[in-house]
Request: fold
Amino acid sequence: MSTTAQPTTGLTTGPASSDEAGLPGPGDRLRTWVLRDWAVNAGYPDSRACLAVFRFSQFAAARWGRPGRVVALVCQALNALALGVELPAVCPVGPRLRLFHPHTVIVNPGVRLGADCVLRHGVTLGNVVDADGHERGNPVLGDRVELGATCAVLGPVHVGEGARVGALSVVTRDVAPGVVVVGSPARPLTPGSAGTPQDTPQDTQHQPEHQPEQHPDQHRADVVPPTPAPSLPHEV
Reply:
């Protein structure tokens, strides 16, 4: 008799797969999840406090049924009031999340974050609503994704592993793994696009190869040539 392997989920197979799911499993300990976050947020007590409250809300929602979900909502409100951070317990968030200056960070329910991600202040991860009022989905971030300050990732987009989003950027399309995107709308950063003006071809193609040496005062608009002294009339 042949058997078919069944797919596993992060909530039933222990700590290893729960890391991938970003949600606590039956054998997980709250202390383990909190300490992993704290280890990568050294020097940021507000980030540590925010993440401890968030992880507690995840465990409460997963372990205590309906009362736990109420506790999770209270925890979410606490973070929102204290720091302006909206991080719902239902969001799967991988271990070792780093929060730099955790203020006004908005994560919509349904967003998924991989392990070792970095969020900075003002980041928004949200959905997009079409003309009929229907939500089109939420972003999914792979492992080691880094988001710059006040950037936004919107809609059913996937940001690949190791990708980075620049500050003030708006992402509405998928980002390939390891790619750096900037701008609004965000586009891949090409070599030389962030260089100094002398590095770009359009700034150098019309430069002459050699310019003759000039006197420092030559062609200066603020230098007035001396006026010749008036000649005196000759005595007769």
In short: The chain is about 25% helix and 15% strand.
